[in-house]
Hints:
single chain; two-stranded antiparallel ribbon
Amino acid sequence: MTTHTDARLQSTVDHVMALLHRNDLVESLVHAQKQPRQELVETIVHRQQLAALQNKLRRLHFADLAHVLEVLPLEERGVVWSLLSDVTRGESLLEVNDAVREQLIEATPRDELLRAIARLDGDDLVDMREDLPDDIFDQAMAGLADVDRDWVANTLSYPEDSVGQWMSQEVISVRGKQTIAEAIAMLRSLDRLPHNTDKIFVLDARGALSGMLLMEDLLLGDPARQIADVQRKSVVTFQPEDRAADAAMAFERYDLSSAPVLNSRGKLLGRLTSDDLMEYLHEEAHEDVLNIAGLLDEEDLFSNIRNAIRNRWLWLAVNLVTAFVASQVIDAFADAITQLVALAALMPIVASVGGNTGNQTTALVVRGLAMNQITLNNLGPILRKELSVALVSGLFWGGVVGLFAGAIYHHLMLSVVIAVALLLNLVVAALTGVLVPFALHRFGRDPAMGASVLLTFMTDSMGFLIFLGLASAVLI
């Protein structure tokens, strides 16, 4: 269902593309009309058309502008990019997806790129570190204040996908000995409040976290009371080495908007917000979708053919190998298929139903692993449950398929063979759907990466082997 926001965004894209196409059309018409001072006329018309487009782009939100850049072909994208100011370019680079960001960075001259990121803060540079050339990143770091430079260096030292890499340095803290009135005065002295400020953190005399104050505590509390007397002691905290995925689940469980990040001595290092974690979860979900599809990295819709092939070839090669193995299983029973042609028509059913059941199981297990709901302790009950589902489904649908096969081919034993084969292949699919993602997870691999390929290999190969093997033993 299309929402109002989606419709507005699509209207924006359509308008920008219409301006781009009108620019090309008008320039073509002017070029075709030979007249005095042709070059000057063409220059004036070109500038007028680009001015209209630039005026439209100037009014767009950075997120909308990023979407426009993502959906434009490379030539039109280059035109839009050339019309943006340095500040707008920097903000847009933060919003576009990784593939488009990489393309824009490669296409932008070094001096222009440096101007575009010159006004970004430390948190933004951390987000873009992997995409920026080393020399550009070093020059941008040199332009930061010492405290911001140290922040970036410390943040990049934490493990990938850890809380430390996603926390923000924008933190408001007060001392327990201050009064509520003094805390309010301090807040009023700030130019702005950090985004998602729903609480301020209270520090003791040693500078360690001792509690927190919600904004309602400040607004409704007695201005004369000391903060230490009204602070809330129960605070959900994180350490920078904690997994961002675990922090995201804690935010959902405790309905948090922000939380402090502490070092091992309880000192306040930074702040984690729901916005940061939403961005992390969005990236993880996007990466899982790509991995399941067999893509190594995010791919620009308009990337060159060489990059697209390089991004896809690995899992295509793996699929080719597994498909070849499955074909050899079929070839081993060529004589049986020749004697009973119905086997060739029915064996894709066994593999297809098994693959569908396995995909359902795999999706549940991958999600459970991502939510930390599956451990070695509860793996047994989960496996028994999935096997039970597979057995019941196999008995029912195997019976249905067997009845249809019998009605079509008028062969009782063929009906029995395909019913048993389908049942056994669903059991194989359930085992594979549970054990393969769990094993990948235990070995530190992404359970979404490769699980579907291995599942397809197992359900196809084992499905063919079981069905054709039973048919050879019983029918031939």
